[in-house]
Amino acid sequence: MKRQLLAAVGVTALLASVAGCGSGGPAKAGPAAADPKDATGTVSVWLMPEAQNNWPELVRSVNGQFAAKYPKVQLKLRYQTWKDKVGNLDAALKDGSAPDVVELGNTETMKYILSGSLAPVDKSTFENSDSWIRGLVNTCTYQDKLFCVPYYAGARVGIYNSAMFQDATGSAEFPKTEDDLRTALDKVQARHRGDRTFSALYLPGPYWYAAMSYVAAYGGAIARFDSSGSWHGTLHDARSQQGIQHFVDLVKTYNHGDLTVNEADQSGVLAKQKAAVLYGNGWEVAGATAPLTGDPKLADSLRQAVMPGPNGKPLPSFIGGSDLAVTAKSPSAELAKDWIRMFTSGKSEQVLADKDTLPNNLTQLEQLKTKAATAAAANAVPDAWFTPLAPGWSAVEKQNVLVGMLDDILGGTSVDAATKDADAAIDKLINTPS
Description:
Blueprint: E1 9-13, E2 41-47, H1 49-54, H2 56-69, E3 73-79, H3 85-95, E4 101-105, H4 109-114, H5 134-140, E5 141-142, E6 145-146, E7 149-161, H6 162-169, H7 178-191, E8 199-202, H8 208-217, E9 223-225, E10 231-233, H9 238-254, H10 266-271, E11 275-281, H11 284-289, E12 302-305, E13 319-326, H12 333-343, H13 346-354, H14 362-365, H15 375-380, H16 393-398, H17 401-410, H18 415-429
Parallel strand pairs: 2-3, 2-4, 8-11
Antiparallel strand pairs: 1-3, 4-13, 5-6, 7-11, 7-12, 7-13, 9-10
Helix pairs in contact: 2-12, 6-7, 8-9, 17-18
């Protein structure tokens, strides 16, 4: 998931904490020390800017809890940036200076699981683990072993200009079905017929996260694990092709921009009022209304809604979010796991929920399903999809196999031919660790 890039800040602090559980369900005991107050050593933690900027009080609280439980243990906390974290972590793993606890975006986990860089963890020792969001658990699981702990979730939603809808359709509400949405989009487009660059629905052609959501809506998949013990591409399957064709039809019908441009600046398109709807992350509203990157006057008009998909159902979303892991060679692994228990306890996750951030479990997610600011994303999370948890998936992404397929289709190649070529490329890469 795209993140706001902030300057890295290093902070060293003495930490501490109460037992690893708050309310919300039992968890087994933490480190098996005779007396936690006699434990010694250092626990180093790398967190990302969201913790520093959005819930610093949670970090302080957990650090205080940890210090109370382990008064002789020093904790060194450092904030990374999404731009630099992977490079810094790779270097630290290589030279033996890796942190004990590291926050990973859920698309980053498989790389480190497959390289043997993360220590396995016991799911049953973490609070609310019986109701963790399935998509997040999948990002931490390989060969039936858990290598990280879900931290918080994210999901893509429909973001729309309610003033444009009011003007064109007489209603500021977002349609609940795709048929009704298309009817509304046609009216919005007609209202802006004088602007050939205006897109009623701005759906970028290479936006493979969106394209694969339509594949998931039809029951298709990028790739599947077969009985022979190997992954193989399944984009050429009929259901996957249906989803891709559906996506392509929407792009061709409603996106009047350059079809080769990806989704990186779609919030900017919304800010310039060159689009009425986009499919993206909730935080893109902030970019569209920010003083420097967008138009603050749109703050009252831009809203989030569940994106309707085919067959009268919501469009399945890619599961976003972060996980917390203990590095494999940590000399303080049990202490590190206990810090994670505290940071992901029911009490801690409630702090996130109170800030409209999706917690790691379905129990606490429930309260956000009816809250205006979070309902769209919260309702999209339980059925969200994720990329194949395969050894070579990162190579598939790096070689832009899906982007290339979509570019080819929008350039005139048939869906049948392009998906067949994409599957062949996936088959060459997906089973080899990258």
